[in-house]
TrEMBL record:
NCBIfam families: PRK00281.1-2 (NF001389), PRK00281.1-4 (NF001390), undec_PP_bacA (TIGR00753). Pfam families: BacA. It catalyses: di-trans,octa-cis-undecaprenyl diphosphate + H2O = di-trans,octa-cis-undecaprenyl phosphate + phosphate + H(+). One of its GO terms (cellular component) is plasma membrane. GO terms for molecular function: undecaprenyl-diphosphatase activity. This is Undecaprenyl-diphosphatase. It comes from Sphingobium terrigena. It is found in: Cell membrane. It is an enzyme of class 3 (hydrolase). The chain crosses the membrane at residues 40-63, 83-102, 114-133, 217-240, 252-268. It is a multi-pass membrane protein. It comes from the Bacteria.
Length: 269
């Protein structure tokens, strides 16, 4: 198989594995670009668009939830409207801040050292939050008060620093605001849908011409999309079961070890 397509498959696997784990998919893709020695800026839009494959996995796995919410909206059921309200409120901060700081975020995407430090600091933060959080009052997405949902949305914005992890920031923000683990994880899955759709739309507007380039043509994007979709399907259910029983500490330790290893490697190149 051509080396280019092997790279595409590898990036699809990395995306599918890491999009919903609190380890930062963007950070891993940036480090992968350094490890493989290709031009990360050329593949920047590809890395964003293949995230839609992982997002589709959420839609497929939770289609019953989305169907129930949709039917509930038509019947004007309060719980369905609160579910939709909470997703929209949590999405708004990232939409506003993402648009305002897009150019600065682009600069950080080319800094693997930032990723390495963010992995370490984020891992330590997860360990501290897990130890500190005791009260878990909210056991359903629709049950979370609007003001706390806004707080979760604001915390998610920290993930604009590559290496922080969108899912990790969302989950930890939810835990700090009284949401139990499984609900926090599932909220991060659902919130990924408008967040990543918005990020992809912005990339298409700004860099749509790259889609026809040799590096990130439609065939590459389609292959990366399919691979990330399949891998994410396998990861999501496993992740929910794991955190329900064991919490997020295993991912925190992984982040710390991976961050240290990345710093050592980057320092010896």
């Amino acid at each position: 198989m051509d080396l280019h397509y092997l790279t595409v498959i590898l990036l699809g696997i990395v995306e599918g594995l890491t999009e919903f784990l609190p380890v930062s998919s963007t950070g891993h893709l940036i480090l992968a670009s350094e490890l493989l020695g290709y031009d990360a800026s050329t593949w920047a839009m590809f890395n964003v668009v293949i995230q839609l494959g992982a997002i589709l996995a959420v839609v497929v796995l939770y289609w019953r939830t989305f169907w129930a919410v949709g039917m509930g909206l038509l019947r004007r059921e309060p719980v369905s409207w609160r579910f939709l309200r909470n997703l929209l409120i949590a999405f708004i901060p990232s939409a506003i801040i993402g648009l305002a700081l897009h150019d600065y975020i682009e600069i950080l995407l080319g800094a693997p050292q930032v990723v390495a430090w963010a992995l370490i600091v984020g891992g330590i933060a997860i360990l501290l939050i897990e130890r500190a959080v005791k009260e878990q009052r909210f056991h359903g997405i629709a049950d979370i008060p609007a003001i706390r949902v806004l707080g979760i949305g604001l915390v998610q914005c920290v993930s604009m620093i590559p290496g922080v992890s969108r899912s990790g920031a969302t989950i930890m923000g939810a835990l700090m605001l009284g949401v139990e683990r499984r609900t926090a994880a599932e909220f991060s899955f659902f919130l990924a849908i408008p967040t990543m759709l918005g990020a992809t739309a912005l990339e298409l507007i700004k860099k749509g011409d790259q889609i026809t380039s040799a590096a990130v043509g439609w065939d590459s994007i389609a292959l990366g999309f399919v691979v990330s979709f399949i891998v994410a399907l396998l990861v999501i259910r496993w992740f929910v079961g794991l955190v329900s029983k064991h919490g997020f500490a295993p991912f925190a330790w992984y982040r710390i070890v991976a961050g240290i290893a990345a710093l050592v490697w980057l320092g010896t190149r």
